[in-house]
C-alpha cells in the first residue's frame, strides 16, 4: 500500500471494460436448471417406480432406502459424467455460517484399472473429518467425527469451472450421537414441526385434502461492489469485510441518486453473468436493482420452499463473490462495509404453503378462507410476541450491530407491522366493536361468518421501518444481516409459529369439548390471543425515539447488541419451545449460543488487530511523513525570509496534535485488546461482553483520531483508498 499504488489503481480502473463474454448466450429455457439433477433429469435417468419413490422422498424430506439410493446414485453419476464432472462432494453448512465441501474423484481402481464409482452409500452418507468445525463445546475432539447425510429436499447440482466440474450433494451434518452440527439439520426439523402443527390446524378446520405444509422463503440480498484494485489496498476490508478507517466523503447518499438508478454497463455485465450462473444452478433469480447507498445493489429470487431457498441463498452469495472477481470487482456482503453509509441486509420473506398449492397467509375471499387466515395470522402474532427475544437472537452477530437501530435498518425491538386495514380488523376482533366497511355499514367481525374487508396487496401501504411486516400474503423479516445464512432466522420462525399454532389448536379443542362450535371457539381463541399479544403490533415509525419509549412501556424487549441478545438463546422458555418442537435440544442450544459468543469475540479480535496494524504501520507513518514535510517546508520558508508563517505553524501544530491523539488511542487499544484477549475466563459470554464494552470503544476512538488525520494529511501521501474513491469510481 502506498499513495502511488492508490493513484495507479484509479488510473487503471478508469479504463476498465467488462470482460467479453466467454461463450455464446443461451436462452433462459436452456439455461435454467441446466446444472441441477432435478425432477426432469431424474425422470429421464431413473426407472419409473424408482422415480416415483424418490419424488415422494424429495417432497417430504424422508430417508431413501438403500436399494433406491443405489439407483439414484447411479443415475446421478451418469448424469454428472455426461456433464464432465470428475468429482463429487457433500456440500454442507457448518456453524461457521459458510458452506463446506471436501471433494472426492469418482475414481476407483480394480486390478490397476480405472473404475468410475459412486454408490448409494456415498450419496446418502459422507464422513468428513469434522474436528475443526465450531461445535461450541458439543464434541470433544477425540469424538470429533460427524457424518453428512443427503437432504433430499434439495437436489444435487454441478459446479463448473472452465477446467472441470464437481457434483455437489446438499447435505445435513450431524455428530454420531445425533446432535446437529450444522445449520441445515435444525432447519429440516423446524420445517417438519411446522408441517405437523399446521396440518393439525387444517384438520381442525375440516381440511382433509392438504397432506403437507411447508414454509416458503424469498430472500432479497443486498451487497456492495467495489473495484478490486481498491479492495486489495484495504487490509481492513480484506481481513474483516469492512473499513475500519475512512473519513466521510463530501458526497454520500444524501442526493438519493443511486436508488433504482440506471445500472452502469460494467455492473450490468457482472449481473448478467451472476444470473446466468445462478439460473444454471436452478436458482430462480428474478430482480436486480441499484440500492440506496452508492455502489450498493440488490438481487432477489422467486420464493421457494425454505430448505431450498436457504441453499440457494448460500449459492447466491458464493456466486456473487466469484463472478465479481472475474469482473475486477470485489463483492462486499458485510452488513456495514462503510461507516456513515447505509449497510446491507437481507429481507427474509416468509409464508406457509400447502401441497395443494395454497398460501396459508393469503387472506382469501370467503368467510371460511378468512377464518383460516386469521387463525394462522394470530399464531404468528402470538408466537412473535411470546418469543421476540428468540427472533432477535436469530439476527445477532457483531456485524449486524452496526445496522440495527441505526436509522437504516429496523431497530433491535421486534415488532409487527400489519398495515391500517388489518390492524382495524384486529381492533374490531379484540374489542368486539363494529367496524365500518367500505359502504359504511357497521359490522362486527365474526370468524367464519363475516368476510374480511379487501386488504391491499401492493406496495403502497409499506412501512420500511418495521422489522417484521405483513406484506399482503407473507411476512417480511427485514432485520436479517446481509452476510448471514438465513437458516437460523427461519429455524426460529418456523419453530415459534409451529408452537403457537399448537397452542391455538389446544385452546380451540378445549372450547369445542366445552360445547362451542368451531366458529365460536376460533373466534374466542383469536380474540383472547390478540388481546394479549397485540402489544407487538406497531404500524408507526420504527426509527423514531418515541417508539423506543413506547416499546418499553409496552414491555417489549430491546436487546441493543448481539451479546445481550445471544444471552437469551438458552433461556428456559426458549429452550423449552425448541425442545417441545423437536428442533434443538438444550445441549444444542447452549453449544450454539457458545458458538455465537465465540464468533462475536473472534470478529472483534480480528478487527482490533487489523486496526492496530493499519494505524501503526500505514496511517501513522504517512502522518509522520507529512508532519516532517510540513516542518521542513516551514523551515525552508523561514530561511528564505518568509515572515507570516503563523498559519502554517498552526497547521503543523494541528497535525502534531492529531498524531499525538492517534498514538494515544493506539496505545490504549493495544492495552485493552491484550487484557481482554488474555482473560477468557472459560466463559464465552463474558469474553464477548468484554470485547464489546472495552475493545470496541477503544477501536472507535482510534478510528476517530485516524479519520481526523486523513482530513489533514497531504492527499499525495495518503496510502489507503478513500471512501470517495471506493464508492464512486468504477
Ligand atoms: P418487493 O418486496 O420488492 O415489493 P415482492 O413483494 O414481490 O417484492 O417480493 C419480495 C420477495 O418475496 C420475492 O423474493 C418474492 O418471491 C417473495 N415472496 C412472494 N410471495 C412469497 C411467499 N408466499 N412466501 C415467501 N416469499 C414470498
Ligand atoms: Mg423487500
What does this structure look like?
The structure is a single chain. The chain has 23 helices and 19 strands. Strands 9, 10, 11, 12, 13, 14, 15, 18 and 19 form a nine-stranded mixed beta sheet that branches. Strands 1, 2, 5, 6, 7 and 8 form a six-stranded mixed beta sheet that branches. The two termini are 19 Å apart. With 730 residues, the protein is α+β, with helices and mostly antiparallel strands. The protein is globular, with a radius of gyration of 28 Å. A hairpin with a 5-residue loop joins strand 10 and strand 11. Helix 14 crosses helix 16, helix 15 packs across helix 16 and helix 20 runs antiparallel to helix 21. Bound molecules: adenosine-5'-diphosphate and magnesium ion.
Features:
730 residues; alpha+beta; 9-stranded mixed beta sheet; 6-stranded mixed beta sheet; 23 helices; 19 strands; 48% helix; binds adenosine-5'-diphosphate; binds magnesium ion
The biggest sheet amounts to: 9 strands, mixed
Q: What is the tally of beta strands?
A: 19
Beta fraction? 5-15%
User: Which segments are poorly predicted (pLDDT under 50) over 5 or more consecutive residues?
Assistant: none
Characterize the overall form. Answer: globular
Distance N terminus to C terminus? 19 Å
> How many alpha or pi helices?
23
Query: Could you estimate the helical fraction of the residues in percent?
Result: 40-55%
Mean pLDDT: 91
Bound molecules: adenosine-5'-diphosphate, magnesium ion
Radius of gyration: 28 Å
Structural class given helices, strands, pairing? alpha+beta
Amino acid at each position: 500500500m502506498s499513495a502511488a499504488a492508490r493513484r495507479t489503481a484509479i488510473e487503471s480502473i478508469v479504463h476498465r471494460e467488462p470482460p467479453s463474454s466467454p461463450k455464446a448466450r443461451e436462452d433462459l429455457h436452456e439455461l435454467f436448471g441446466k446444472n441441477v439433477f432435478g425432477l426432469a433429469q431424474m425422470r429421464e435417468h431413473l426407472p419409473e417406480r424408482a422415480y416415483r419413490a424418490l419424488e415422494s422422498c424429495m417432497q417430504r424430506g424422508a430417508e431413501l432406502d438403500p436399494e433406491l439410493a443405489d439407483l439414484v446414485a447411479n443415475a446421478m453419476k451418469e448424469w454428472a459424467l455426461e456433464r464432465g464432472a470428475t468429482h463429487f462432494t457433500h456440500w454442507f453448512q457448518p456453524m461457521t455460517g459458510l458452506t463446506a465441501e471436501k471433494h472426492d474423484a469418482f475414481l476407483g481402481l480394480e486390478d490397476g484399472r480405472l473404475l468410475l464409482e459412486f454408490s448409494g452409500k456415498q450419496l446418502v452418507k459422507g464422513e468428513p473429518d469434522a474436528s475443526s468445525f465450531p461445535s461450541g463445546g458439543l464434541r470433544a475432539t477425540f469424538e470429533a467425527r460427524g457424518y453428512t447425510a443427503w437432504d433430499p429436499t434439495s437436489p444435487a447440482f454441478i459446479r463448473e469451472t472452465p477446467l472441470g466440474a464437481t457434483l455437489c450433494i446438499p447435505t445435513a451434518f450431524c455428530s454420531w450421537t445425533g446432535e446437529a452440527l450444522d445449520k441445515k439439520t435444525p432447519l429440516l426439523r423446524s420445517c417438519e414441526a411446522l408441517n405437523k402443527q399446521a396440518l393439525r390446524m387444517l384438520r381442525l378446520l375440516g381440511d382433509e385434502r392438504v397432506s403437507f405444509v411447508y414454509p416458503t422463503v424469498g430472500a432479497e440480498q443486498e451487497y456492495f461492489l467495489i473495484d478490486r484494485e481498491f479492495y486489495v489496498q484495504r487490509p481492513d476490508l480484506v481481513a474483516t469485510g469492512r473499513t475500519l478507517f475512512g473519513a466521510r466523503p463530501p458526497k454520500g447518499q444524501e442526493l438519493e441518486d443511486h436508488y433504482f438508478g440506471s445500472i452502469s454497463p460494467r455492473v450490468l455485465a457482472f449481473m448478467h453473468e451472476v444470473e446466468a450462473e445462478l439460473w444454471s444452478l436452478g436458482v430462480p433469480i428474478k430482480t436486480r436493482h441499484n440500492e440506496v447507498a452508492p455502489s450498493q445493489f440488490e438481487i432477489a429470487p422467486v420464493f421457494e420452499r425454505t430448505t431450498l431457498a436457504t441453499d440457494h441463498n448460500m449459492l447466491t452469495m458464493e456466486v456473487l463473490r466469484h463472478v465479481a472477481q472475474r469482473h475486477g470487482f470485489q463483492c462486499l456482503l458485510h452488513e456495514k462495509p462503510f461507516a456513515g453509509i447505509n449497510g446491507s441486509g437481507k429481507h427474509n420473506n416468509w409464508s406457509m404453503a400447502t401441497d395443494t398449492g395454497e398460501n396459508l397467509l393469503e387472506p382469501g375471499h370467503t368467510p371460511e378462507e378468512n377464518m383460516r387466515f386469521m387463525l394462522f395470522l394470530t399464531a404468528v402474532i402470538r408466537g412473535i410476541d411470546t418469543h421476540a427475544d428468540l427472533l432477535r437472537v436469530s439476527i445477532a452477530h457483531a456485524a449486524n450491530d452496526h445496522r440495527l437501530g441505526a436509522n437504516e435498518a429496523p431497530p433491535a425491538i421486534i415488532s409487527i407491522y400489519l398495515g391500517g386495514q388489518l390492524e382495524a380488523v384486529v381492533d374490531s376482533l379484540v374489542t368486539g366493536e363494529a367496524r365500518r366497511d367500505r359502504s359504511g355499514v357497521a359490522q362486527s367481525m365474526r370468524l367464519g361468518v363475516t368476510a374480511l374487508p379487501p386488504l391491499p396487496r401492493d406496495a403502497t401501504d409499506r412501512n420500511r421501518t418495521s422489522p417484521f411486516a405483513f406484506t399482503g400474503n407473507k411476512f417480511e423479516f427485514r432485520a436479517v444481516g446481509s452476510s448471514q445464512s438465513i437458516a437460523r432466522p427461519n429455524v426460529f420462525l418456523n419453530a415459534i409459529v409451529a408452537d403457537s399454532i399448537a397452542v391455538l389448536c389446544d385452546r380451540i379443542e378445549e372450547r369445542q369439548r366445552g360445547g362451542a362450535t368451531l366458529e365460536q371457539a376460533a373466534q374466542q381463541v383469536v380474540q383472547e390471543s390478540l388481546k394479549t399479544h397485540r402489544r407487538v403490533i406497531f404500524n408507526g415509525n420504527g426509527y423514531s425515539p418515541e417508539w423506543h419509549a413506547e416499546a418499553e412501556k409496552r414491555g417489549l424487549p430491546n436487546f441493543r447488541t448481539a451479546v445481550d441478545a445471544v444471552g437469551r438463546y438458552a433461556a428456559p422458555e426458549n429452550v423449552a419451545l425448541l425442545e417441545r418442537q423437536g428442533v434443538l435440544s438444550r445441549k444444542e442450544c447452549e453449544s450454539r449460543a457458545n458458538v455465537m459468543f465465540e464468533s462475536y469475540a473472534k470478529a472483534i479480535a480480528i478487527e482490533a488487530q487489523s486496526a492496530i496494524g493499519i494505524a501503526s504501520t500505514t496511517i501513522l507513518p504517512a502522518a509522520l511523513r507529512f508532519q516532517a514535510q510540513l516542518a521542513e517546508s516551514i523551515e525552508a520558508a523561514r530561511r528564505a525570509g518568509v515572515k507570516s508563517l503563523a498559519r502554517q505553524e498552526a497547521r503543523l501544530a494541528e497535525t502534531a496534535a492529531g498524531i499525538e491523539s492517534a498514538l494515544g488511542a493506539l496505545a490504549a487499544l493495544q492495552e485493552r485488546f491484550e487484557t481482554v484477549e488474555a482473560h477468557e475466563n472459560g466463559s464465552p459470554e463474558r469474553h464477548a461482553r468484554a470485547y464489546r464494552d472495552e475493545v470496541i470503544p477503544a477501536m472507535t476512538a482510534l478510528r476517530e483520531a485516524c479519520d481526523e488525520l486523513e482530513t489533514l494529511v497531504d492527499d499525495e501521501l495518503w496510502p489507503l483508498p478513500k471512501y470517495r474513491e471506493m464508492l464512486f469510481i468504477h
